[in-house]
Design goal:
Elements: H1 11-23, H2 27-55, H3 62-78, H4 86-98, H5 104-112, H6 151-155, H7 160-170, H8 185-194
Helix pairs in contact: 1-2, 2-3, 2-4, 3-4
Length: 200
């Protein structure tokens, strides 16, 4: 069963657009993606924001996102759902986009906590995307959305290493990193050896 967003876009493409737009500090694109997700996938959207606070954000921002979700739930409850509390989603997007970005947690995860999960060699149902054009600046979802985690990225030969390199370079605004002068050599060696990765 194909998962579609509010306006019929592929769920997986929009989910990728959401995180990668936040990573780039791009409020309009992140907001577009959130609007597409909110109608049917609001729970996923909030969960994804918490993951973003660990993967991409410098400092302890997760509590702010949790607080905004609690506020939204309260407003919905006290207005019997008449007020959807989109202002709290907007504030979360603002905070995440404006926060300094740092992938140190991902570096630690990949190089020291990395597990042995194997990347599936075959495409799953979620990969069977049929991408409509999005109403964005250039009329299409940006090419950077399609990394190794998507059908089109796999089809184009994108690798996990491409994603790690490209997303590290895209962080906006970027915070100083503990590992900024280091290569991800141990992780790249593991990729070459085992071909697996469990991040995003």
């Amino acid at each position: 069963m194909k998962l579609l967003t509010r306006d019929g876009y592929d769920f997986y493409s929009i989910a990728s657009l959401f995180q990668k737009s936040i990573r780039r500090g791009d409020i309009p694109k992140a907001s577009f993606a959130a609007w597409q997700l909110m109608e049917k996938y609001e729970g996923y959207m909030w969960n994804r924001m918490l993951i973003i606070t660990a993967e991409d954000i410098d400092g302890m921002i997760g509590w702010a996102i949790i607080g905004l979700k609690i506020q939204q739930d309260m407003v919905k409850k006290h207005t019997n759902g008449k007020n959807k509390g989109t202002i709290f989603v907007a504030k979360a997007i603002e905070i995440l986009c404006k926060s300094r970005k740092c992938r140190d947690a991902c570096y630690i995860d990949c190089n020291w906590l990395w597990n042995d999960d194997k990347v599936k060699e075959t495409l799953t149902a979620e990969d069977l995307e049929c991408l409509p054009e999005a109403e964005l600046e250039n009329g299409k979802i940006p090419s950077w959305v399609y990394d190794v985690h998507t059908y089109w990225g796999k089809k184009a030969g994108k690798t996990v290493w491409d994603m790690i390199r490209d997303e590290e370079n895209a962080l906006t605004p970027k915070a100083p990193s503990l590992f900024g002068d280091k290569e991800w050599s141990d992780f790249q060696y593991k990729l070459d050896l085992e071909g697996s990765y469990h991040g995003s």
